[in-house]
Amino acid sequence: MRVRRLKITNFRGISQGSVDFDGHTLLVGGNNIGKSTICEALDLVLGPERLFRRPVIDEHDFHCGKYLDDDGAPIEVRIEAILVDLSDEAKRRFCGHLRRWNDTACVFIDDADDALDHADAADAMWALPLLFVGRYDRDEDDFIGNTFFDHPSKDVDPLDEETEIRLGQGRVPFTRMHKRLCGFVFLRTLRTGSRALSLQRGSLLDSVLKLGGTGAVEMWQDTLARLQSLDPAIGEITQLKHIRDEIRARMGRFINLAPGDESTGFFASDLTREHLREVVRLFVAAQPGQHLVPFGRLGTGSINLLVFALLTFIAELKDKQSVIFAMEEPEIALPPHTQRRVTRFILAEMGQSIVTSHSPYVIEQFDPEQIVILNRNETGALTGQPINVDAVKPKTFRTERRQFAEAILSRAVLVVEGSTEASLFPVASSIMEASLGADAYTHLDLAGVSIFNAGGDGSVPRHGSVFSALGKLSFGFYDKPNAALTPAATEKLKEYTQFWESPEKGIETVLVKQMPVAVVRRFLDEVKDRSDYPAVGTYDPAAVDADVVALASKVLKARKGDAHGYAAMLVAQCQNADELPATIREILETIHKALSAVPEDIAAPPMDELEGLLG
């Protein structure tokens, strides 16, 4: 069983929008774009314990906090989910609520006039439509909500006092037992693990208890009975027994107590099973020590690995192919190698995994067709756009997984031909920021710009369509070619938001020709005594400017790339933005201007509009 589509209306920051899921899905986008909201929406529809939280939703769960319209009528939160690939048991249990679904066109077949002709087509399947509805109940002065089978509504008597019937407009509730059959598990962002590892309802340990078989029901009553029947009893402690006798004697003057010594007593606890859920804690002894401590006293990384261990347990208990697993930011407090391991595990062991992340180590584990890029405009309309796999070739993606992962997380991408250019632009950006001030210029890192090394001469043009398919603002910078570009390369360059052809053949020539000679002299004086200084001539401070420039060019060409970082060291000698090469400064200023015209976390404007803004 898996989620195929989720549609959200009036929930938190989303006024309306929908996302399609094609098996395992990675949700990416800027901060506050709606990733966590999607996970919470799934939990409202599918989480077995979520609706037992009181209140189910509150004022802040409504878009812009508005739960009444201008006439005082309640505004509804509506979350619609469509489940497909149903198990035989699910088809049997939910048979009266299923609809035929075209999985290629993503539409219900029975909506069409010729539905019977397509009901048994190759891409037709049974789907289960579900609906969560939440709103303010004026009569109760409270917020209510529930999940329903989203089949056609029945006629409802407006005088009917049944809250669930009025809320769902005659729909049949989709109960906790129904939801357990779906196997939905939601692991929120782990910063302390306090709830995930507690025994609170819906926690991972609670899920393990429920899936583990018999005995969970009797466990709580047995525990409470053991607390009350400690041997020796708490009340037999000498000091407490004396107090108990005094209380019984003095109370007996005013109240008719039961006869005998047992009319008063001390017990270990008056806890209920709900109290026990709150206070029972897992203790762990981690090396090098042997002392058991509450799990919360472990390091954050250890806590997350403990959660990971529980996930493996749940997958085994639940029959892995039936689990719909939503997970927020698995990278929190985990080192890169563990991030990769956790991600590979959930992709292999869960029936469907829906993951949010800002980590390239997580993102690189997903194939392009599994990645959905989220955008939300100023009105709160959400869109989820999968990567265009026709534009992003699988071979190219596999070869440069890490770079693509960083680009997917960025607001914009600057594509350059080699590692020399990739290393010098951040340095130039730092000089721009220090010289012009943060109000006038935003550093590439803070602006969310990823630098992509295309890997060689002539490679920049072919990436224009790639990053256009990712929905990114994209900028390209390439060396002056030896021969005219082909018509195909010229067309691909047009896919960039803006691109620049270098005025020279080679970035080294651009640098030494467009920088004051004083900067070049400072650079040579800095590197002349380095152990990796190339054997191309010794720097003489008394040399004429032309010889200094020629020597610097030889040094830079002999130490190309980011392994030695000589080009970046040359740029670092600039004391202000005016000393930077004009071409480099123009590129950085243009990117800054383009991003300033696009508010962060809002979908980019059309390309022609940006071109107008950029002049």
List the helices and strands and how they pair.
Layout: E1 2-11, E2 14-20, E3 25-28, H1 35-46, E4 77-84, H2 88-93, E5 99-102, E6 107-108, H3 115-118, E7 124-137, E8 142-149, H4 163-168, H5 176-182, E9 184-187, H6 204-211, H7 216-228, H8 238-251, H9 273-279, E10 283-284, E11 293-294, H10 300-318, E12 324-328, H11 336-349, E13 352-356, H12 360-363, E14 371-376, E15 381-386, H13 394-399, H14 401-409, E16 412-416, H15 419-436, H16 444-447, E17 449-453, H17 464-469, E18 473-478, H18 487-493, E19 498-501, H19 507-514, H20 517-527, H21 545-558, H22 566-572, H23 582-596, H24 607-614
Parallel strand pairs: 2-15, 3-13, 3-14, 9-12, 12-13, 16-17, 16-18, 18-19
Antiparallel strand pairs: 1-2, 1-4, 4-7, 5-6, 5-7, 7-8, 10-11, 14-15
Helix pairs in contact: 6-10, 10-11, 15-22, 19-21, 20-21, 20-22
